[in-house]
Amino acid sequence: MADILQILILGLALGGVYALMGAGLSLVFGVMRIVNLAHPSLIMMGAYVAFWGFRLYGIDPIVMLPVAMVILAATGVLLYKLVFEREAKSAKYSEMTVLLTFAFAMVFEGALATAFTNTQRVTTPDYAVDAIFIGNVFIPLGQLYAGIVSLVLIGALALYLKYSRFGYAIRATTQNREAAELLGVNVNFVGLVSFAIGLALAGAAGALVSFVFSFFPSKHWEWIAILMSLVVLGGMGSILGTVVAAYILSVVAAFVGFFFGATLSTLTFFVALFVVLLVRPQGLFGEKPELA
Amino acid sequence: MSLLTVKNVVAGYGDGPAILNGASVDVQPGKVHCIIGPNGAGKSTLLKAICGMLKIRSGEVTFKGESLKGLRPDQVLRKGICFVPQERALFPKMTVRENLRMGGFSMTDKRLLEKRIDEIEERFPILKERRDQHAGTMSGGQQQTLSMARTMILRPEIVMLDEPSLGLAPKIVQEIFDIIRVMAADGITILIVEQNALMGLRCADWGVVLDLGRTLFEGPAEEVLADPRIREAYLGAKKAA
Amino acid sequence: EIVIGASLPLTGAFSISGAKHDQGYQLCVDLINERGGINGEPVRLITSDNRSDPATAINQYERFINVDQVDAVFGTFSSRLTFPVANILARNGYVHPAPAGGALRIYTQGHQNLFYFQPNAAEYIGSSVTDMIQELIAEEDRPTTAAVVVADDFFANAVEAGLLGLQVIDPADGSVVEDMAPGYLAEAGIEVVYTEKWPEEGFNDWLNLANSVKRSGAELIIALTASAEEAVQVTRALQTVRAEPKMVYYSQGTQAEFLEGTNDASEAILVHTSWHAAAPYEGVLGGQPFSNADFVELYQERYGDFPDEDAAIPFAVCQGIEQAIIGAGSTDNAAMGEWLYARTNEDPVRTILGRFAWDERGLPVDKPFLMAQWNGGELQFVFPTDEFETSPLNHPKDGF
Amino acid sequence: MLEVKGLSKHFGGIRAVDNCSFSAEKGRITALIGPNGAGKTTAFNCISRTMTPTAGEVWLDGERIDHLRPHRITAKGLSRTFQISRNLADMTVLENVICQSKISGWRDLFKPAMSPSEIDKAMAILDFLGITRIAHEDGSNLSYGQKKLMDLAALLMSDPKIILLDEPAGGVNPTLLEEIVGHIRALNDKGMTVLIVEHNMELIMRLSHRVVVMAQGTVIADGTPEEVQKNPAVLEAYLGGALEDAA
Amino acid sequence: MMSSYDTVDQIVAARKAYNETLAQAADRTRVTWLPVLLLVILALFPLMQFVGNYNYPIHLVLYTLMYVTMASGWNILGGFTGYISLGHSVFFAVGGYFAGMILARYGVSTIIMAPVAGLVAGLLGYMIGLITLRVRGPSFIISSLALVMICRILFEKWQFVGGAAGLSLPINDLPVQWAKLPYYYAFLVMAAFGVWVAYRVKHSKFGLGLRAISKDEIKAESAGIDTRFYKVLAFAISAFMFGMAGAVWGEYLTYVRPNIFVHILYFSVWPALMCILGGKGTIAGPVVGAVLIVAFNEFFVATLGASAINILATGLIMALTLMFFPLGLIGTLARYRKLPRALNWD
Ligand SMILES: Nc1ncnc2c1ncn2[C@@H]1O[C@H](COP(=O)(O)OP(=O)(O)OP(=O)(O)O)[C@@H](O)[C@H]1O
Ligand SMILES: Nc1ncnc2c1ncn2[C@@H]1O[C@H](COP(=O)(O)OP(=O)(O)OP(=O)(O)O)[C@@H](O)[C@H]1O
Ligand SMILES: CC(C)C[C@H](N)C(=O)O
Ligand SMILES: [Mg+2]
Ligand SMILES: [Mg+2]
């Protein structure tokens, strides 16, 4: 019983991190129909911000989190202005952006690796290797903090989208870009801001990841497929779906790992994706497609 | 004095060929204007060019003496020109009330917005009845009512409607044109594009025939309606026997 | 001018070791040039980065051979990359000095040009661990149970095969390359209570793994990783779950980066190594004696850091090739290969890793691995005790 | 002859089509009318199986077809157009049309598509509809009405026995509409069964032999145009005061 | 009333003239001499071995030809049908493993087994397609990424084929100078076959159906096209090409291993990128793309080494091309009617 509880806790702990990693991706897809394959490499960038803050000045990664968010948001603004703003007008937009962001994933990877080498890094605040023990069940502190921060950020984002004026604009743009434009929403600005928010979330996720996982620039490939699975599973563009999928799958993966071995546990995400494609192609929270 | 002047506008999609080749329209305040023309003449294109969705390559669009060229749709809207496109421009997963609220997105005064919404709901009871229903699940006619009602929230000076009667049942078509008259009576200037040309022109004060990307005829609606050339070329009347 | 090519994993999963291999090769080549080159000819080293990717490594050796027309090559790092590279070097008849490619299967393919510059094949490493336990630890203090966790990597799997007594099979024809049964742990009377293998890429759930290791209650934790990076991950996870083993042995983790990533948690962790700064080996360079101590000194002078085995092994490779060229009198690779094969324990290749002579497979004869232990932030040499001076073994380990 | 029995299609709580039965007789023009949201398009979708019906049966010439995939139904001789014209961008009108030609068996699949015989047939149809001029124009660069005609041409390419037209007149210029009406009638004269959805009452009254009226997913009236016109339920639900106008 | 026309006939005439300016038939002259000439030149190229060491150029041409095979295959699914797969390395690996194991166990050359390996890959593609082709757009792309992950892990787990350590294959016993030639000619034949298949498919009814599917699946289905079968068949054909290429590549490399063969960048993304760079849906596009990408890569390797900067540069080139040549080189040039006739192979 303690075992089961323990695995559940470990699964949930990882789930929190994946949830935040996936949330930004989902937001950007939802609003802009960009499948941002560069998202994991941007998370990596956030992780490096936190890493160097810690390494050079001893700043705690959680304290560095806002800095990472700002830097990444700025990157987002730049990227949007230079690339996606003009891309948005192209006819093959959706599939074009997949390939384009793939290219940028390579650019960021190359840039990070050139700047920081491909040496594996991890920030080492004390809590990252600490845990709270309750009887013989433990809660890893690093992941607990990461999970809490992630929930706070996702919650704030959800509230913002639901109630703020700008949130309205974002939701409206998601549902009908042209109509929003005609009602006085500067859709380009909405795109810009949501892209920046999405990337800020990547920055935040990066700061948290920096002490939960070890990382090096080319590691983002390992994250891409996992995060993408979450987004499809949750239903493309549904942030809630992504978060729920992140938690469910992390827990399932933890159990699979425990009962069937580590190798199969990494398979969980992808096999789940295929099962979902078979039984519910639109994902947990997605819209049913027109043709059955 | 005309409220909105479109003069020799040339415009097209992307870097494709010019679709409009010198279209001109004079919009008089408080009147209903109806643009007719064959399919592919560029009627929708003209409205899109006015509201800033398309780049105007040459020619002039002036609103109260100010040029609208180069403005974004949201900026044109703020000037007081509202456009309801051919495909109903609703937010399908927002409720009716949220849709109305989006209509006033560019308003800063929240209380005024709520007041206007209440007024609109008074005038169109169906919207009050369905206020919490998702717009996407309403019937075509209801959706059209909603999108037109929504434009009235801003009290714009000009409303441009692209084929408001398209695909609507005869009973609803009647209602839609009634609403247009109501809006006009409220002092809103109206510019509609209609294929249901008979009804459109009957409802209008001023008629415009757009073809080949240009304005071919322009005049009081009754005159346009009565012109035998127009009747045959555009209104489907058999060759005068 | 003698041109030598080396493709190394400067980036990617093996970047730490790869970068140090680069330093080792470079330092050696520079020292040779300072000493007047080989047979009076200056040496030029071309290195390229294969991103830890085997296909890229193959392609880069193709380029060395056909485009750069190098006179000789140095091997690359890790079994994973060495295995495919061995084929192409064999086809082109180049002497293949391997700095890191311990898996037995590399040496059982019948290549005639292969020379391993580490003590022994990976399958046999486990014996150093159990020998040490039996020689240094009193009967009642010895660990009786073990948990073995392994990266799914060519090298790590090989070490695992030795420890657990598995069959090494060539999947090509299904033949048994070597049957390691019953395995060093079984021979030493240590019961394996938990095993787990994680995939080479995409594995993140270290805590779950560490938790299972802890739950198994094993007294000896063996973590076989292919890189120092993974060793850091395992250690941090074990620390988080507060595992309480008596003894911990890793297949990787001699590097300063390991210490940096783990800090106090490194205490009393055992790692096998091919090289140690304290080993009083005498080698040759540029025709003159060149001792291990010289290497440590010159390395520090050049790079500022203290060297580790990942810099020392390639240095030895370079020494070996130098001696082969001198011995053969030219860069005729066939002659160099013959000369190297002719080495015996009495007339060996002399390097900072000690003496090398090879059997017909290309594996060194009579060279046991060294065991080292992290104590107080320092990697101490603890076993074997018969050859050189050692530090005392810190046992039992006081948990994490 | 097409027969729909007890057809239902529900979207969550919305009963778009609810236990609806009607039929289209061979060689005649049957009109399906009704207020917006009555479920006409949904019924079409269920018949041509681009949507899976919740319940009910569809029979074509004594054969049940509601379990078949759409292309099989097309192969059985039932073709349809879409209310919102679906055209294939980046393909010429000719390709759009030929794309719809029948394919029989494996070997046919790898035969050249634009064979002279196919092109001749397609051009003949385009000629019949008077749009040969745009044969090489990109399918997406057409005006609304031309798209409707192209749809009709593509429809004919598959030699259908019965065609389902969803608002062929919507958004079409009145002059062009006259042409379309002429074409539909000509087809019917050649023995083709037609089921048509339209809001243009004047056209319906002129064209159809029989009118089925739907409201809220069910059939509320069924009869000749004259009968239906007088039906008070239809007047109430659908026509309002519009009839005098059309007359 | 203002007006420029007096009678209806004038209006009708004017409209007719206006419409005629819009419609113009596309330029449909294709070129066959260039591909044939290329084929001849490439067939004779290895004779250069008599005058010097051209091993590396031969390697490069061989490498390019392999990519032509794959990119042409990818084109059938990604270019004609509009399903962007970033997971075709799976079929490359399946072909490689299948033929590799047969070579290792029974000594049958992969060159002979290549078509069989292709069929195995194609069959697997057919079955996978039945699942993944149920979704389209971004979901499909992501499912293809997941496919790569699953396949890699399964191969790593499968000890019979060597697990993570992989499978080493025997070296042929030709002299170094000629050792590459069997593979060179094998890839030459496969590349020519790939281009020919793409051409045939494009002009068949099947190809027209695929193009319809890529534009609007519902429309295609109700036009009487068995979309599910067409899509899956396209998937299988493209998988076939990858399987064949993988088979021979395994023997050429003498090493088959999950991480080499299921490599997402080299064998999934590159073929896709080549196709898109050259021009999706065109016949010459994949060929042009393959030549360009291999050349770029070689240039970077030669100037920058295979370092991180190389990745950066590749990414940048890819991004710039996508931004400025969204239809690929062939597609964009054709769009602006600047395509040299020699490159119109359609
Ligand atoms: N998005 C677009 N891209 C390129 N060309 C377009 C686009 N939309 C319309 N066109 C072209 O512009 C021309 C005019 O189209 P427009 O929609 O303005 O016609 P319209 O007068 O509104 O016709 P209808 O009555 O059928 O709606 C047509 O020839 C059409 O092919
Ligand atoms: N995909 C869908 N999801 C949910 N509801 C739907 C969907 N499609 C149609 N509906 C609903 O089903 C009902 C019937 O719609 P349908 O399009 O069949 O009407 P119609 O008779 O064709 O109307 P119109 O004359 O306006 O075209 C409407 O209430 C509509 O909102
Ligand atoms: C550093 C080493 C011990 C590596 C090992 N020789 C290998 O084959 O991968
Ligand atoms: Mg229009
Ligand atoms: Mg309908």
UniProtKB/TrEMBL annotation, chain A:
GO terms for molecular function: transmembrane transporter activity. Its main location: membrane. It is a multi-pass membrane protein. Keywords: Amino-acid transport, Cell membrane, Membrane, Transmembrane, Transmembrane helix, Transport. One of its GO terms (cellular component) is plasma membrane. CDD domains: TM_PBP1_LivH_like. It is found in: Cell membrane. This is Branched-chain amino acid ABC transporter permease. Belongs to the binding-protein-dependent transport system permease family. LivHM subfamily. It comes from Histidinibacterium lentulum. GO terms for biological process: amino acid transport. The chain crosses the membrane at residues 6-30, 37-57, 63-84, 96-117, 137-161, 182-211, 223-249, 256-279.
UniProtKB/TrEMBL annotation, chain B:
GO terms for biological process: L-amino acid transport. Pfam families: ABC_tran (PF00005). Residues 4-237 form the ABC transporter domain. Keywords: Amino-acid transport, ATP-binding, Nucleotide-binding, Transport. GO terms for molecular function: ATP binding; ATP hydrolysis activity; branched-chain amino acid transmembrane transporter activity. InterPro entries: AAA+_ATPase, ABC_transporter-like_ATP-bd, BCAA_Transport_ATP-bd_LivF, P-loop_NTPase. Belongs to the ABC transporter superfamily. This is ABC transporter ATP-binding protein.
TrEMBL record, chain D:
GO terms for cellular component: plasma membrane. SUPFAM superfamilies: P-loop containing nucleoside triphosphate hydrolases. It comes from the Bacteria. Residues 2-241 form the ABC transporter domain. GO terms for molecular function: ATP binding; ATP hydrolysis activity. SMART domains: AAA. InterPro entries: AAA+_ATPase, ABC_AA/LPS_Transport, ABC_transporter-like_ATP-bd, ABC_transporter-like_CS, BCA_ABC_TP_C, P-loop_NTPase. Keywords: ATP-binding, Nucleotide-binding, Transport. Gene3D superfamilies: P-loop containing nucleotide triphosphate hydrolases. The keyword Nucleotide-binding applies. This is ABC transporter ATP-binding protein. The lineage of its organism: Bacteria, Pseudomonadati, Pseudomonadota, Alphaproteobacteria, Rhodobacterales.
TrEMBL record, chain E:
It comes from the Bacteria. The chain crosses the membrane at residues 31-52, 58-77, 89-106, 112-133, 140-161, 181-201, 229-248, 260-279, 286-305, 311-334. It comes from Histidinibacterium lentulum. Pfam families: BPD_transp_2. InterPro entries: ABC_transp_permease (IPR001851), LivM-like (IPR043428). It is a multi-pass membrane protein. The keyword Cell wall biogenesis/degradation does not apply. Keywords: Cell membrane, Membrane, Transmembrane, Transmembrane helix. One of its GO terms (cellular component) is plasma membrane. This is Branched-chain amino acid ABC transporter permease. GO terms for molecular function: branched-chain amino acid transmembrane transporter activity. PANTHER family: HIGH-AFFINITY BRANCHED-CHAIN AMINO ACID TRANSPORT PROTEIN BRAE, HIGH-AFFINITY BRANCHED-CHAIN AMINO ACID TRANSPORT SYSTEM PERMEASE. It is found in: Cell membrane.
